[in-house]
Amino acid sequence: MVSRVRTIAFQGIEAVPVDVQVMVAPGKVGMQIVGLPDKAVAESRERVQAALHASGLSMPAKKVTVNLAPADLPKEGSHYDLPIALGLMAALGAVPGDQLADYVVLGELSLDGTIAAVNGALPAAIGANAEGKGLICPHASGPEAAWAGADIDILAPRSLIAIANHFRGTQVLSRPEPAVRAQTAALPDLADIKGQETAKRALEVAAAGGHNLMMVGPPGSGKSMLAQRLPSILPPLAPRELLEVSMIASIAGELAEGKLSDRRPFRAPHHSASMAAMVGGGLRVKPGEVSLAHCGVLFVDEFPEFHPAVLDSLRQPLEAGEAVIARANHRVTYPARFQLVAAMNPCRCGMAGEPGYRCARGTRCQTDYQSRISGPLLDRIDLRIEVPAVSAADLIRPARAEPSASVAGRVARARGLQRERFDRLGLPGIGVNAHCPTALVEEIAAPDAAGLSLLREASEKLGFSARAYHRVLKVARTLADLDGAGAVGRIHLAEAISYRIMGERLAQAA
Ligand SMILES: Nc1ncnc2c1ncn2[C@@H]1O[C@H](COP(=O)(O)OP(=O)(O)O)[C@@H](O)[C@H]1O
Ligand SMILES: [Mg+2]
After folding, report:
1. E strands of 203-311, at which residues?
2. Ligand 1 center to residue 225 CA distance, Å?
3. Which ligand ends up closest to the CA of 215?
4. d(CA 222, ligand 1 centre) in Å
5. Distance from the CA of 357 to the center of ligand 1, in angstroms?
6. 416 falls in which pLDDT band (50, 70, 90)?
7. What residue ranges line ligand 1, CB within 6 angstroms?
8. pLDDT in tens, 459-478
9. Helix locations, 6-134, DSSP H
10. Which residue's alpha carbon is at the smallest distance from atom 6 of ligand 1?
11. pTM > 0.85
12. Would you place residue 225 in the very low, low, confident or very high pLDDT band (cuts 50, 70, 90)?
């Protein structure tokens, strides 16, 4: 006799249906799992047998075959324990198989029969809901799954015995409640930063248009401090973004206690990060930092200290908005539309360009250090600024800096204009100028006559690539949006070009 239980396999953030078929038949006593299982799935056998035993159910003295269908889909992870165990229990008559058919099941088993939390409960619940099914998941994953919808039937038992009792009607499980992360910790505020008006302006422009930003300056000038304050001026996640961000966090196992937050992610990987940590990969093809920063900020501090291959791996997600991870027999794609903020010292000793300072290694100190950033990567960074050491006069002056809240107001207004424009153009998926398709840039950011002549002059003098040309236009559009101006004028282009110039100098060093 064959019993069937529905579960899922993850492909990126999508949950693909998987059928667990359990057959108990006469033959050599033992249990076998087939259907392209990875090592964690193969180990299910031991956990399921121990958990059933601990729950007072003995394995039948027969041959048990578990098939995970479709067989050509790779099955990774430990969440197959629970569907396999429930399939076996249904075959033994301990739970009603027909009621199980209404659910998608996932969960890991401990040897004592309790059900341990697994990653990905949220995308699993969303997948189940789309098929009109309920979800059986671990107790600890319940609050996360409950976010998938108010009408979806979710059972979040603590143990195999609890789920058996629920179906028997002796101890009915209640639906878990979705949990919200309390926003107690206030974000660091721009008001803490004295002086650095140029840098703050660039930060505001970056926030308004979703542009990538690079800051170059001596140690201690406040680059890290500035970057950490970017989230405080960004608008909260829109509902659709919130879901995507949470699904990625769910798969990565980074949703603390299943609580969701509408704050934009801010990821700051260390410069020792590997390629797998950055773009994703590893044993279970986990999302990398670029995906965990989806809809938020990826802060790459000490930019040139990262491994050059790791830095170059950022190019593809920067361009495509998704990270593609190739495996031996399949590819996994995670969304990765992030805003890059990079910070670096001008040279290895950090002081190049400071008045009265000379590097021990002369100009090579600076050129060698800056050439670690490849030209094509630099080309994708629209705003490049120098952050000079903060002057003593600025530091001593009593703080009167503008708080984040008022900057955030201007950013929100500029973003509102952009959203309206993209909606009008029939592109509701695009929220900010930085993501505008190249074909549309010249339409939305057409400069006036004075602007055009400035742009022509600058592109000739500076030798802009086609990409650079379009990126300058996008930044100019954002500057006009911050001004509330309809057309892109000369003043907007002048500022946009100034943000580009420093990078052209760096590129020449490279
Ligand atoms: N503009 C500033 N206003 C107030 N404090 C500052 C400023 N710039 C730097 N600091 C102080 O210097 C410290 C180092 O700044 P940090 O952002 O780490 O510098 P960087 O990343 O450029 O090396 C900060 O923690 C802060 O105390
Ligand atoms: Mg720093």
Report:
1. 213-216, 259-260, 266-267, 280-281, 286-287, 297-301
2. 6
3. 1
4. 3
5. 20
6. very high
7. 193-196, 217, 219-225, 343, 390
8. 898 888 888 899 999 999 99
9. 39-42, 44-54, 81-92, 97-100, 121-130
10. 222
11. yes
12. very high
